[in-house]
Amino acid sequence: MEERPFIIGVAGGSSSGKTTIAERLVDLTGQDYLSLIELDSYYLDRIDLPIEERKLINYDHPDAFDWPLLNDHLAALANGASVPVPVYDYAEYRRSGEVRTVAPARIVVVDGILVLWDQALRERFDLKIFVDTAADVRLIRRLQRDQAERGRTAEYVIDQYLATVKPAHERFIEPSKRHADVIIPEGGLNRPALDVLLARVRELTLGED
User: Fold this and answer.
1) Within a 13 Å sphere around the CA of 155, how many CA atoms are in the beta-carbon half?
2) Homologous superfamily of 6-206 in CATH?
C-alpha cells in the first residue's frame, strides 16, 4: 500500500453507540476502503485461570487489555501489512484460539471503550472521537445486548455494572474524553453531528469536497 492509512479512534462508554458510528463509516467508504479493529479483541488471554476466576476480572480496567499487541498491529497496518486479530469468546471469557485477518486499508477505525486512554495508541490516531451517552441509556443497552448476545442474566449484568463497569467508566473512560478531537453526544442517534463527522472523513480520506 503506497499511502499511510488514516487512523480513527472511536472511544466512549460501554454501549454508548460507538459501533453505530463505525458502521456508518463502513457504509460511507465501503469495506474495501476501511478496516475495523475492535479493542475487545485484545483482551488478555486468561486461559491459565479457571472460568469462575475469569468472570471476576474487571474487563473495563486498562489492565485487562494487551496494549503492546494492539499497538504492534496498528503499526503493521500503517506499514501495509495484514494482521491476525484475536477472536474473543465472551461466553468463555478468553480468546477463542481463532484469529481474524485484517488487511490494510485507506481508513483504519479502532473502536473501544479505552482507545483514548493509552498514550501510545492515541498518538497513532489522525482523528480521535468520543461518544458521550447518558449512563442510564448505556445501562439499558448493555442489559439488552448482554442478555441477547452473550448469555448473561439481568442480575449478572447489573451486578457487574455496579461493581466494575460504572467505577471504571468514571475513573478511566470519562476522563479520556479530554483527548478527543470530536465529542458526539448520544452517538449514532445524533444525526447532525454524525453527518458533519462523515463529511469531514469523506473530505480527509477520499479527497472529496
Assistant:
1) 0
2) P-loop containing nucleotide triphosphate hydrolases (3.40.50.300)
Q: Across 17-21, 56-60, 116-120, which has the greatest mean pLDDT?
A: 116-120
pLDDT tens for 136-188 read 888 888 888 888 887 788 888 888 888 888 999 999 999 999 999 988 887 66
Q: Using the predicted structure, report yes or no on whether residue 34 has a pLDDT greater than 80.
A: yes
**Angle, alpha carbons 198-202-206 (nearest 5°):** 160
For residue 37, the one-letter residue type is I
Contact between residue 143 and residue 158 where contact means Cβ atoms under 8 Å apart: yes
Per the listing, cell 488514516 goes with 6
Distances 95 to 38, 67, 84, 168 between C-alpha atoms, Å? 13, 15, 13, 22
Instruction: With residue 38 as reference, give the H or E element that holds it.
Output: strand 34-38
Calpha distance 142→154 (Å, rounded): 10
Cell numbers placing 160 = 457487574
Query: pLDDT per residue over 83-96, tens digit each?
Result: 999 999 988 889 99
Planar angle of CA 47, 52, 55, nearest 5 degrees: 80
